[in-house]
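@channel anyone free to eyeball this complex?
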Amino acid sequence: MCELLGMSANVPTDICFSFTGLIKRGGDTGPHKDGWGITFYEGKGCRTFKDPDASHCSPVAGFLRDYPIKSCAVVSHIRQANRGKVGLENTHPFTRELWGRNWTFAHNGQLSGYQALATGTSIPVGQTDSERAFCHLLHRIRTRFPEGPPAKPQTFWRFVAKVAEELKALGVFNMLLTDGRYLMAYCSTKLQWLTRRAPFGAAKLIDEDMEVDFGALTTPDDVVTVIATTPLTEGEPWAAMAPGQYVVFRLGEVYLKG
Amino acid sequence: MCELLGMSANVPTDICFSFTGLIKRGGDTGPHKDGWGITFYEGKGCRTFKDPDASHCSPVAGFLRDYPIKSCAVVSHIRQANRGKVGLENTHPFTRELWGRNWTFAHNGQLSGYQALATGTSIPVGQTDSERAFCHLLHRIRTRFPEGPPAKPQTFWRFVAKVAEELKALGVFNMLLTDGRYLMAYCSTKLQWLTRRAPFGAAKLIDEDMEVDFGALTTPDDVVTVIATTPLTEGEPWAAMAPGQYVVFRLGEVYLKG
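replying in thread with the prediction:
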């Protein structure tokens, strides 16, 4: 299994604090030692840092922990391999283009019978159930909306949730998906989220002896939502999602729930 | 205009030395201050580091200069914007999937009338002539080989060279393209390459006061080819390509020329 981390915010915000907690679980406070990755959006563009090594001792992860990249949409993943060997081609997040935007996907869980999932022209590069599920999702979207995105984003996200529901029937399918504007969290077994807004307080990481006073780092209008497999901090009101539930965030706020 | 850097090798080799020379040209010894990127292949997987800032003072570039990532195929680019604003979505290299492999593309030059280039299902995310040319190339490949890659790689690469020739007719089109196994260098105006093999000697960068003795870092069987817009080192036999010429490298050796 693996762990997920996502962020949706209304102002470009760095994720160094949460990432510091996450990467400790990559082979130190957690067993997820088989690679890690993180994707930051800046406008329509995005960049991914990934490494097939354990995050808790990865020099690239160490660099990012101390280098604040500000973004309104972030997806991160640490991996404990089950389907597919340890290697860069099997390291999440995966990014592909659809309709002239970059779509980024990360998955926690394990699927059975995933080899039978149709992928159309989106062919997996690696061997994971996750990448195949992502390619299947893109194929289903292209087939359902051959003319491009529907007029109402709600129509689109409800369809994605429907496909996610089908994938959940194949095993465990906790998922983060973003195009840099919207970020969907789909819960199959475990996923929690937390919105920070004024008045901002302090927070303390669970996996590392580190505390931050967000009041000193934010403005009163900032809204920042963090999504994670399990809470990264103590004493904050993380909301646990129920199996089959999804939330689509936009600029840190809940845009759609189901 | 921009500068290109590529590497093809028969053993995983780091490119720190050449990259150190290149990034000095990103706003210091050269004017290419509008972003930079570098893609490393490890097997079928690849990872890209990119930044919309000038490479000579980019903390990410500084980190990579000192952090040896070993790879058999590398493509790098530093940008001086002409078509498309400065931003991550316009920063090379660009990577897209075709036939279950990651294809990475970088371009030096400027094209006219590029908005008319058909791209099929590969839609550009940014505004550059370069990304559009890459999407056009992928579209042409898909249309020419609808059943997947032809039996002979030569057939494939000759077709790519033919499309590159057409793109060259729209302006300046120096290009690097790789799938991690093969690396094509297509010359429109300037591109040079150099193969290092035993007996290895020392080399000195032009853009930075740095010298390396490759004899101390290599084994007698290593073959490493470096491709660049203009020579990065003094006293080594760089080969200048002629306009319209291409070379496809595989494991550091010339695989196909035209």
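from a first look: The domain at 3-257 of chain B is CATH 3.60.20.10 (Glutamine Phosphoribosylpyrophosphate, subunit 1, domain 1).
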